[in-house]
Specification:
The chain has 411 residues and is mainly β. 4% of the residues lie in helices and 43% in strands. The chain starts with 11 loop residues before the first strand and ends with a strand.
Length: 411
C-alpha cells in the first residue's frame, strides 16, 4: 500500500444546456433484439444470489418464508432512442426520496448510451428513462441537432442524487477510434434533463468511466474511476435545491493498468462499490482482471495505490466491468470479456457468455449467470430495493441494445 501527499484541485466548471424529449421505437433494433434474445443463455452456477435461481426461471418465483408462488416477468426493453444511439453502458435506479418536479420518479431506471447510430464508440449523447412499467422516453440528449463532430460519449459513470440531480461521465472520440480520444468530463444534469455544469480536471477527472455515490442528501461523496489515467478520484460535494458544489477533488487510488484497444477502445479501472460502514471502496480493474479493496476511501487525503487485491479468478473473471452490491453483502461484477481481445491478458480458454459474477468480499466465487450468449455484451449493472422482501437488478446488454430488470426475492 502506498500513501502519498494529498492531491486536490479546483474543478473546472463549464456551463451548458441540454434538452429532454421522447424516444421513438426502433423496429429494426427490435427485430435484432428478438433474434438475439432467443439464444440468450441464463445459466446459474450456484443459487445463493438473493433468489437469483428463481428469478431466472422467468415466470415463477418462490417466496420461501410464506410458501407462496408469485409471477415475476423480467422487464426487457430497448434502450435505443429516436436518434439511434446504441451500445448502452451505464445504468442507475432513481432512488427513494428523489426530489419531485420533473419526469423522473423513484424506481425509474436510467441508461446511458456510448455509441451513436453509426455505432461509433465514444459518440453517444443520450440517456433514456425506463419506468417500472417499461415505458421508455428520452431524458437527456447532449447533441439534439445531431450534428458532427460529436462532443460526448456517455459512459458507465451514471448516478442519481436524491436532491434531484443526475451525474454522467463522458469519454468522447472524434470518429469512434482510440486514436481520437478526447478529454473526459462529468456532467451535472437537473431533474428535467437540462445540463447544469460540466466538471473536468486534466489530472484528477480526465476520463470518468464509472462511479458510485454515498448520498447524504445535503452532501455527497462521489467516487469516479478514470479509465485513461488508471486512477480513482473522490469528489466531495455540497448539494442544495439548485446546484451541486464541488468542495474537493482527491485522488484516493492509482496504478491500475490502462491501455488503448482496437476493439474495446480503452481498457482500465471501471466498476466501483462503496461500503460506507467499513469505509472501503471496491474497484474492478478490467485490464488487470482483478478486484481490489481501497481502505479509508471516504477519509483518504492521498492515494492508497491499488489497495488490496481481494479477488483474482481466471476461471470466472474475464475483464470485470461494472460493480454493485447484492443485498446479502456479496459483490456482483459484469464480465466484459476484454481479456480475449486485449493482448496483455492473453486468450481465455473458457466459453464466453457475458456473465454477471457473484463473489464475497473475501474473494470467494459464489455464482454466475449469463446476460447474453455473445461475448462482450454485459456492461453496466445496478441493484435497488423493491420492498421488504425483493430487490431489483438492472443489467444492460450492449449486443442487443437492451436493459433487463429482474425483480428478485430476498430469502
Amino acid at each position: 500500500m502506498q500513501n502519498t501527499a494529498p492531491q486536490r484541485a479546483t474543478c473546472r466548471v463549464v456551463a451548458g444546456m441540454g434538452l429532454s424529449g421522447r424516444a421513438a421505437a426502433n423496429e429494426t433494433n427490435r427485430a435484432v433484439r428478438v433474434e438475439k434474445r432467443s439464444r440468450s443463455l441464463h445459466r446459474i452456477a450456484r443459487y445463493r444470489l438473493f433468489g437469483l435461481a428463481m428469478a431466472l426461471l422467468p415466470l415463477t418465483q418462490v417466496r420461501a418464508d410464506a410458501q407462496q408462488v408469485r409471477q415475476f416477468v423480467p422487464l426487457q426493453v430497448s434502450t435505443v432512442p429516436a436518434n439511434g444511439d446504441q451500445n448502452p453502458y451505464g445504468v442507475a435506479f432513481v432512488p427513494p426520496g428523489f426530489s419531485a418536479g420533473g419526469p423522473l420518479q423513484p424506481g425509474d431506471v436510467l441508461v446511458s448510451n456510448f455509441n451513436n447510430a453509426a455505432n461509433l464508440q465514444g459518440t453517444g449523447t443520450t440517456i433514456v428513462r425506463v419506468t417500472p412499467a417499461g415505458q421508455v422516453s428520452l431524458f437527456f440528449n447532449g447533441n439534439p441537432s445531431n450534428k458532427p463532430p460529436p462532443t460526448l460519449g456517455l459512459t458507465t459513470a451514471l448516478g442519481v442524487l436524491k436532491r434531484g440531480f443526475v451525474l454522467v461521465g463522458s469519454v468522447p472520440t472524434i470518429d469512434g477510434t482510440f486514436g481520437t480520444l478526447q478529454q473526459g468530463s462529468l456532467l451535472v444534469l437537473d431533474h428535467n434533463g437540462n445540463l447544469l455544469a460540466t466538471l473536468a480536471d486534466a489530472t484528477l477527472l480526465d476520463s470518468p468511466w464509472d462511479l458510485t455515490i454515498q448520498d447524504g442528501f445535503y452532501w455527497a461523496r462521489v467516487f469516479v474511476s478514470n479509465v485513461r489515467s488508471g486512477t480513482v478520484t473522490r469528489l466531495d460535494l455540497g448539494v442544495d435545491s439548485s446546484r451541486v458544489i464541488v468542495k474537493a477533488l482527491t485522488q484516493i487510488a492509482s496504478g491500475y493498468t490502462s491501455h488503448l484497444d482496437p476493439a474495446a477502445l480503452i481498457v482500465g479501472p471501471t466498476g466501483l462499490a462503496y461500503d460506507a460502514n467499513a469505509d472501503v471502496l471496491y474497484v474492478a480493474s478490467t485490464a488487470d482482471n482483478e478486484i481490489f479493496a481501497v481502505p479509508h476511501a471516504g477519509a483518504a487525503t492521498g492515494s492508497h495505490g491499488r489497495g488490496t487485491l481481494i479477488y483474482q479468478d481466471n476461471a470466472h473473471l474475464r475483464g470485470p466491468l461494472a460493480l454493485a452490491f447484492a443485498p446479502n453483502g456479496d459483490l456482483l461484477t459484469s464480465n466484459g470479456d476484454a481479456p480475449t481481445v486485449s493482448s496483455p491478458m492473453g486468450p481465455s480458454t473458457q466459453p464466453l457468455n457475458s456473465e454477471i459474477v457473484e463473489f464475497t468480499k473475501n474473494g470467494k466465487f459464489i455464482a454466475q449467470f449469463s446476460i447474453d450468449s455473445a461475448a462482450g455484451a454485459a456492461f453496466g449493472i445496478a441493484t435497488a430495493p423493491a420492498g421488504d422482501d425483493s430487490t431489483r437488478l438492472a443489467a444492460v446488454d450492449d449486443a442487443t441494445n437492451e436493459v433487463t430488470v429482474f425483480r428478485l426475492s430476498t430469502p
